[in-house]
Design goal:
75 residues; alpha+beta; 11% strand; flat
Length: 75
């Protein structure tokens, strides 16, 4: 990524970090767990594929080729 000091200053560009989607883990994960337990959050519907540890290479290939939205590694 390239930019000039002018872009940062005059165009008010910003760098923002994101860790867990900027969620507050202590608060938000508990809320998500409550929603899931109440049947209001379909986590299974968000998983395209479950893979074993020995299938990781294929899982990364499928992800990079756009075959899956989200894979979950089961061990």
């Amino acid at each position: 990524m390239t930019f000039t000091a002018r872009e940062l200053f005059f165009d008010e560009k910003k760098f923002l970090g994101s860790f867990y989607g900027s969620a507050d883990v202590r608060r938000d994960f508990l809320t998500l767990l409550r929603l899931w337990r109440a049947g209001r959050l379909d986590l299974d519907g968000m998983i395209t594929r479950r893979v074993a540890l020995d299938e990781l290479d294929d899982a990364f290939r499928a992800m990079s080729e756009g075959e899956v939205v989200r894979s979950v590694v089961m061990y």
